[in-house]
TrEMBL record:
Organism of origin: Alteribacillus bidgolensis
TM spans (from-to): 16-40, 61-86
Residue ranges of domain TRAP C4-dicarboxylate transport system permease DctM subunit in the record: 1-84
The keyword Lipid metabolism appears for this protein: no
The protein, known as: Tripartite ATP-independent transporter, DctM component
Pfam families: DctM (PF06808)
Amino acid sequence: MGAAAFVLAEVMQINYVIVATAAIIPAILFCLGLWASVHFEAKKLNLKLKDAKDMPHLKDVFLKGEALTLFVPMFVLILLLVYWLYTSV
């Protein structure tokens, strides 16, 4: 949806924020469908949750730096697109 949204904003000569706002509902429905698919497949295969002691701490995950490579570019793009109203036009 990302590249198509930029193309749509360019062709229609409208702000990207308007296109992104219109895509919120389909994105939420997609995530819900994906969650349901994984949930029911796990139920069918009788998969269980891991113990809490086997899970890494959230602080350790964020401090390692792997999470930063995902979240920093996302926040920069959102800041540029929404706060300063950069467009693809």
